[in-house]
Structure formats: C-alpha cells, structure tokens
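Structural prep section.
Before we set up the soaks we want a predicted structure of the protein with zinc ion in place, mainly to decide which crystallisation condition to try first. Input record follows.
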Amino acid sequence: MKKGSIIQRLQKGIVLGGEGYLFELERRGYIKAGAYVPEVVLDFPDALKELHREFLRAGAETMVAFTYYAHRDKMRIIGREKDLKPLNVNALRIAKEIAEEGNALVAGNICNTWAYDPANKEETGKVVRQMYEEQVGWAKEEGADFIIAETIEYVGEALIALEVIKKYNLPAMVTFATTYEKSKDGVDWIEGCQMLESKGADVVGFNCIRGPQTMLPMLRKLRKAVKCYVAAQPVPYNTTEKYPAFQFLKDRYGENAYTLALEQHLLSRFEMAKFAKDAQEIGVNYIGICCGGAPYHVRAMAEALGRVVPASKYSADMSQHGMLGSSKIVKKHEKAFLEKWK
Ligand SMILES: [Zn+2]
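Run finished without errors. Recording the tokens verbatim:
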C-alpha cells in the first residue's frame, strides 16, 4: 500500500516530520563533530537504519535520506570525495528500506553548501548548482518522493536549490535557517519565503537554529504571508529573545554552548508536544524537529496531534511508578518519603 504524494498528504492534514539525525548519531559516536559529514551511512549503516526505524515508530511520516552535508565540497574536506555517490545512493536506499516498514515518504535532502557568496554569485552559484544537481539527480534516480532543501541562510542559494528540484520535477520543500534578523544576503525572511513561493516551491518555512519560542512568532507572520504549505522544524532548545538562535546560547559557565554543550537548554517532550499544538493552531502544515531532536520528542508531538503511533505502546504510564504511582501501587511505607520531595 503506497502512501500518496507529499502534496496529497498535506491536502489531507498535517504531515509530521522528524529529523535530528546529525546530532543524534554524533552523540552515539558515529559522526565526527566539526565537519559533521554523515559518514555513518557507509561506515555503520545499521546504526542509521535503527535511528530511521525509531523515528518511524515515533510517528515520523517522512524518512529523510541522510545526505545532509554529503555534498562534494564537504566530502572533499574530509578526504572522501570518491565516496560521494555511494554515500548519497546508500542513504537514499536506507531511507526507502525503512520507509517501507511503515507508510512513510522518502525525502531526498540537500542543504546549505558554504560555497555560495552573494558578492560573487555568478561563479559560486555555478558551484552550488553543480552540487545540488548531483544530489537531486541521485535522489530522483532512487525514487525519492520529494526533496527537502534545508538550513539555507542565503535566499540566492535557496532559489538555486528550488530551481534544481523543479528541474527534476519533484515536489520541493525549502526551509531557511534563520540565525540572523535577515538572510545573509540581506533579504527579509518572510519575503524570502514569498520569493520561493512565487518560483513554485510547494512548501516553505524554517528549520533548525531557533527553538519554538523564537520560531513561533515568525511562523505566525509567514502563515499570513504565503498561500502555499508552511513547514516548521525547530531545534528542541530553549532559545529566547536575548538568544534567538541556538548558536548564541551559553553554557552555565558563560562559554558558548553550541554545538557540543547544549544539553542544559534541551526542551522536554512536553515542550515539543506543546510546540506541535501551537504550530497546528497557526496553520503550519509540515511539523517536525531538527538538531537535538530525538524519537521521544517526535512521539510526544505525534500524540499531541491526536495520533497513536507504534511507539505509543510504551508511552508513559506513571500510575505504575513506585513513588509517583496510584494509591494502589505506592506502598504505605514509601509514601512517607514522598514528603521529602516537596
Ligand atoms: Zn538542524
């Protein structure tokens, strides 16, 4: 039984995404922080499959091929340029294999390249386009249902991504990484999304960088400004008015917490569940999560949207807890200790 296109699904209602592969597999010891290239695809494919499966069980409706930062420039930096195609193709096949265990769609994935320079957009744009052409071409060959172009900070780069996706005749979801007030090439974020919409993007929005608190106000503006579908995949970190992007967060000693010491800012499953509800209320169509997110967040978001997912079988039931449980469960002699918790 297959599934319906991303557009058909969005017409019916919210599509739940689930990302965060990079941070999660780094934490598990399969990716090197710094370059953040998804070498795990070739070196430990079973670890990647398992994480896909966990997101699937948690209710993610899209298996995003783990090709983030698997473009030619990054592969060259880590000395694995010859692995470029095998890595991309394997990532797509793994995503497809696990998607078929459920009823998920497969998204090809391209991202910010670090190659685009608005001061030299002709020449650098060509380099970016070539890298996107390779990756989107492989995604098309491997049967991806749509493409997510994400974490892009230049509107110029996003427009190239969109053009390439449309050239391959695939539905396009393009989302910006809104670190600063405007894009790095000086465009208002909402206007950037409107430009994407006018050029035929099917889904526009924001991913990564901001937590719910600082992404929700932007989503309210965006929803009013575009007619196409809107996507929101925030990071599960407590970004604030003072520190609107997670790159700016400090650890408890005043040092930069990004990227490796963000834990103290991590949002709970309940906070991400609330985000899902808030985004639903605004009218966001594709709701997900980015760096820092884990399957338990996605399950809580799915359940907040009224869904029962495979992993719901093991959702919390605190009535059976030895201290916090119901009066039938908690032993009399234990109850006294609860007083000390107050
Ligand atoms: Zn991210």
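Observations: Residues 121-141 form the longest helix (21 residues).
Flagged for discussion at group meeting.
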